[in-house]
Design brief:
Keywords: Membrane, Transmembrane, Transmembrane helix. By secondary structure, the protein is mainly α. The protein has helices at 2-13, 17-29, 33-48, 51-75, 81-101, 107-135, 141-168, 172-198, 218-237, 240-248, 252-260, 263-276, 282-303, 306-342, 346-374, 377-392, 394-431. The protein is built from 17 helices and no strands.
């Protein structure tokens, strides 16, 4: 066992300097993500008892993200990517400060906090996606995302339980509010620490300066369709666990415990899949994640009680990282292929990809809000997740077509390069 651990450490050390720094940066920032994903939604629920405000907050975030992706493309012409990446991380702390400073959680205040968080995520994810693309290749991307997801899952064991216990240990609404303020201060300090780690890397800005295009290769348009299906769940799935458990189980302590149960098993599964799986295994991994998600969502809709909520969260803990572990390498490989075909910079596709996600997010959040206002809050919580999970199963067939088409184009490009090299060699021999 000890030798195996040493072997895994040596394998990590064999990666490039920038690979390791990006992992360390994301490791530090990973302590912030559970707070943002879970307890900001719980804070809104506690102080407004209105799930529609949680979804509106999420919509504000997802509106700010694509706008910031676009802005980031222009900023990269003048500002180093490390600075933009760091600003993105620190803005998440600023957004929480805005939220905690609101005396009443009206729609305007929630919207401003959401837009600010969207700015944070936009700067963070656009630069992080580009750096992940730049420092990895198709052979080590499974390992990169497996390791990264393993770290996030392990941290998801400790942080939700610790924060839930901390909030629950306080008596009265004033003390609980003070606990949220303390958590917000700690979050801001962690974002500063993550920014310091980021500056140890030697990250370069994208070379090509034009990022906006409207015509793309058919393979890329197919990936945009897959991104829209991925965005369906993102529309409110980030905050759905908080809304669901707060309604059914009632308190942040239960929320933290439910998020932590099963996370060790999920972390082990994800790490070993990322470490030892091949690019050809991505469809299997993706399909397993989608099926587990659909199973958990349908059980939640059928039972809609404590058991249903906990089973859904347990399956989600495994399903979400499985989906991400397969999706991101598929996305980056498609970018590698279409970049060579269309001779454009990578960031143009990272920017355009966000548009596909945004369409899906609007549809996902819109589904929840339509059911919320047309029927009832309980009906929306009970059935919206199941509807979206079943729709997402279409992603299996789309991803298969993408991989087959990508393999074909990659083979054609390799053959073309080989033919050109042979032709050049023949010319040289003739000249001699």
């Amino acid at each position: 066992m000890f030798k195996k651990l040493i072997s895994e450490i040596d394998h990590f050390k064999s990666q490039t300097h920038n690979f390791r720094i990006l992992i360390f940066t994301n490791l530090v920032y990973a302590f912030v993500l559970p707070v943002i994903d879970i307890f900001v939604a719980a804070y809104i629920m506690r102080n407004s008892n209105d799930t529609s405000k949680v979804v509106i907050y999420q919509l504000a975030i997802y509106t700010g993200i694509p706008l910031t992706f676009l802005l980031n493309g222009f900023l990269l012409k003048h500002i180093n990517i490390r600075k933009l990446y760091s600003i993105g991380m620190m803005l998440s702390g600023v957004s929480m400060i805005i939220m905690m400073s609101l005396k009443t959680l009206d729609l305007i205040g929630v919207g401003i906090a959401g837009i600010t968080m969207g700015l944070s995520f936009g700067l963070y994810w656009s630069n992080r996606d580009y750096l992940a693309l730049a420092i990895t290749n198709d052979n080590n991307r499974n390992y990169y995302y497996g390791l990264e997801t393993f770290i996030y899952t392990i941290i998801a064991i400790v942080i939700p339980a610790a924060i839930g216990w901390f909030i629950q240990s306080k008596a009265g609404e004033d003390q609980k509010h003070a606990a949220y303020l303390i958590i917000t201060g700690i979050v801001f300090l962690i974002t500063v620490w993550a920014s310091i780690v980021c500056f140890r890397g030697n990250f370069d800005n994208p070379i090509q300066k034009q990022y906006i295009f409207f015509k793309f290769h058919p393979l890329w348009r197919r990936l945009l369709l897959l991104a829209s299906f991925k965005g369906l769940a993102q529309g409110f799935l980030v905050t759905a666990p908080a809304m669901l458990i707060f309604k059914i189980l009632g308190e942040e302590g239960a929320l933290g415990n439910a998020q932590s149960i099963g996370a060790i098993l999920a972390a082990a599964i994800i790490y070993f899949i990322g470490r030892f799986s091949k690019p050809s295994d991505r469809i299997k991994t993706f399909s397993a994640g989608l099926i587990l998600f659909a199973l958990g969502a349908c059980l939640n809709g059928f039972l809609f009680d404590k058991i249903g909520a906990i089973v859904f969260l347990l399956l989600l803990l495994i399903a979400k990282p499985l989906m991400d572990l397969a999706y991101f390498p598929i996305q980056l490989r498609v970018i590698d292929i279409v970049c060579r075909i269309e001779k454009r910079g990578e960031f143009a596709y990272i920017l355009n990809h966000e548009a596909g996600l945004y369409v899906g997010r609007l549809l996902g959040a819109g589904t929840f809000l339509a059911l919320y206002y047309a029927v009832s809050e309980d009906f929306a919580l009970r059935y919206a997740i199941g509807i979206i999970a079943l729709l997402q199963l279409c992603s299996v067939f789309i991803s298969k077509k993408i991989i087959r088409e990508g393999d074909r184009l990659s083979l054609e490009k390799t053959t073309e390069i080989d033919a050109k090299a042979l032709e050049e060699a023949a010319v040289k021999i003739t000249l001699k």
